[in-house]
Design a protein that fits this description.
Elements (H helix, E strand, L loop, with lengths): L1 E3 L3 H6 L6 E2 L16 E5 L4 H12 L3 E5 L11 E2 L9
Parallel strand pairs: 1-2, 1-3, 3-4
Antiparallel strand pairs: 4-5
């Protein structure tokens, strides 16, 4: 599941195919996220997605973060914490 952490306006202007928009400020709804999925998080530049990924990982979720954010992504810049292998 791909989660766009940017605000609604940025998401509507452009986003990754298949991404859902949950702005970073609203990520406290993590209790509603399914526990059996891997989440790929991205934001504008990468810092918010790293913070959100750290928090979700501490709560037991499988999480990846796009290094450098939306504008830097070129298909290979995914962050894989040592605890997790590859996106399947």
């Amino acid at each position: 599941m791909i989660i766009d952490l940017r605000d609604k306006e940025e998401y509507e202007a452009s986003h990754f195919d298949g991404a859902v928009n949950i702005p970073y400020e609203e990520l406290d709804i993590f209790e509603a996220l399914p526990a059996n999925k891997t989440f790929v998080l991205y934001c504008d530049r990468g810092s918010a997605s790293l913070l959100a990924a750290r928090e979700l990982m501490q709560r037991g979720y499988r999480v990846k973060s796009v290094v450098g954010g939306f504008h830097a992504y070129k298909g290979t810049n995914l962050y894989f914490p040592a605890e997790h292998s590859k996106i399947k």
